[in-house]
């Protein structure tokens, strides 16, 4: 297992970690198999989406804020219930196929760490297994 | 593969199954690898979220009810279209990394079975594979 | 890895690909393990939901359209920001347990390719690994 450390800078932010995940796959020397990417935080998540126009991630973040407002009267008293809800909507793990030691992604796909309650120090775990 | 049996008690309910998944991983004797947790029902799901303050799961459940109301005029006539939609939003499978025969979870993470159309008798399938 | 080619016909459409995924698992000759199904597109996704009443998929599609309207003033200028957002909500990968060379699915579960920006030619990648 590899661990990627991320320092986020905003409350809501998507950070492209595709290259870091590829590096972890390289270091784990799995030629063919699958790669599990896991977010160990309950107010963040992981998603795969467009890596070209940065407006796409901006639209996803702002629409999630509209669907799950920060300032609703929630039960949880820490002021980040919206972050927990977004985490469950987006999900906390991904799996990607590996061929020839490379992640098999579509042309326009990037892997994003989704911060919903930053800024914080975060980790992402990566495990490649062969098959 | 191990099967976990769950009896839910309410229409919408999140049940912490972290210990049961860990037991299944122990019994499958996989030291390093990944664990797939799978929900074979179309009106329930699985998520990972906070295991400390029970208000968090309460907030997730009630916000999902707001986003996907039970009583909208849906096409499906069984009165549980909202449950099917929530199932697709939350997702029906999880994958978690295993190290030293232990699930690698964050400090505040618990694994939840998400009932959206209970009370019912439910199953969860668990498969650990090494790598 | 196997590749499944799909030609979608509508802007939003769910296509049952359960049999195709099972065929890929058969051809990869994995008796016990897990199957990763991956969508390499950023305006489409994958989900598991009811395979009996077609009204269920109709309700999911139309409720997603309500939650994420097509015609909002988004930043991304291609007119498909809603499709990208739906892709992140539904997710782009699935994992399913394999036993006796068969996908282990619930009685009412089908695997759906979710088109959110069709009609288009699409691919789905399938990788079974043993364990």
- CATH superfamily placement of chain A: YjbQ-like
Low-confidence stretches of chain A at least 5 residues in length (pLDDT < 50)? none
Order of helices and strands of chain A: EEHEEHHEEEE
Mean pLDDT of chain A: 97
Rounded radius of gyration of chain A (Å): 15 Å
Report on this model:
Three copies of one chain form a homotrimer. Chain A is an alpha+beta fold. Chain A has one domain: YjbQ-like (Jelly Rolls), CATH 2.60.120. Helices cover 26% and strands 37% of the residues of chain A. Chain A contains three helices and eight strands; from the N terminus they run E-E-H-E-E-H-H-E-E-E-E. Chain A has helices at 18-28, 55-67, 81-90; strands at residues 2-7, 13-16, 33-38, 44-50, 93-99, 102-103, 109-115, 121-130. In chain A, the strands form two sheets. In chain A, strands 1-8-3-5-6 form a five-stranded antiparallel β-sheet, covered by helices on one side. In chain A, strand 5 (93-99) and strand 6 form a beta hairpin. The longest helix of chain A is centred in the middle third of the chain and has 13 residues, at 55-67. Chain A is elongated. The two termini of chain A are 17 Å apart. The relative contact order of chain A is 0.39. The B-C interface holds B 1, 30, 33, 36, 38-42, 67-68, 72, 74-78, 81, 84-85, 87-89, 91-93, 95, 125, 127-131 and C 32-34, 47-50, 53, 55-56, 58-60, 62-64, 67, 89-91, 94-97, 99, 104-109, 129-131.
